[in-house]
Design a protein that fits this description.
alpha+beta, elongated, about 35% helix, about 140 residues, 6 strands, single chain, 4-stranded antiparallel β-sheet, two-stranded parallel sheet
Length: about 140
């Protein structure tokens, strides 16, 4: 998370405002490919359907767009990824919880915002499934 904040500090106000506006009016869409404490990888699609690859890690922040290449410094795509990830982390639990037929979630969350009833083995492949639900489902004796 510190990579995000240090990257945002380097973004010019104009690029920051363009990123915020693009996220707001959906002319910029962020698709996270990988997110860990060490690195974030994302694709950012602009209003012209062009996609740019963004990588943020200890070594720095990179975007494949011409603006980042020629003008140096973080572009609006990098800012959009930072803002998007920070907003997702700030939101309340946004995971999909696995719910038993009796209305209880596997993890015990009493009021899930999102849940999946009658899930299948495919749930193991979804990145936004509650990790605790998934663990308790796949390791019933450990719970």
């Amino acid at each position: 998370m510190t990579h995000l904040l240090s990257t945002l500090r380097e973004v010019t106000p104009d690029r920051h405002n363009r990123a915020v506006q693009g996220l707001r009016d959906h002319t910029l869409t962020v698709t996270l490919i990988k997110q860990s404490e060490a690195e974030i990888r994302a694709l950012v699609r602009n209003g012209e359907a062009k996609e740019y690859r963004v990588i943020i890690n200890d070594a720095g922040a990179l975007c494949s767009c011409p603006d980042a290449f020629y003008h140096r410094g973080p572009c609006k795509h990098l800012a959009a990824v930072c803002i998007s990830v920070l907003q997702r982390n700030d939101q309340a639990d946004n995971h999909i919880h696995l719910m038993w037929p009796d209305g209880q979630t596997c993890c015990g969350e009493p009021h899930p915002q999102r849940y999946w009833l009658n899930w299948t083995l495919n749930a193991r492949n979804w990145p936004d499934i509650c990790p605790t639900c998934l663990h308790r489902w796949t390791h019933p004796l450990a719970a």
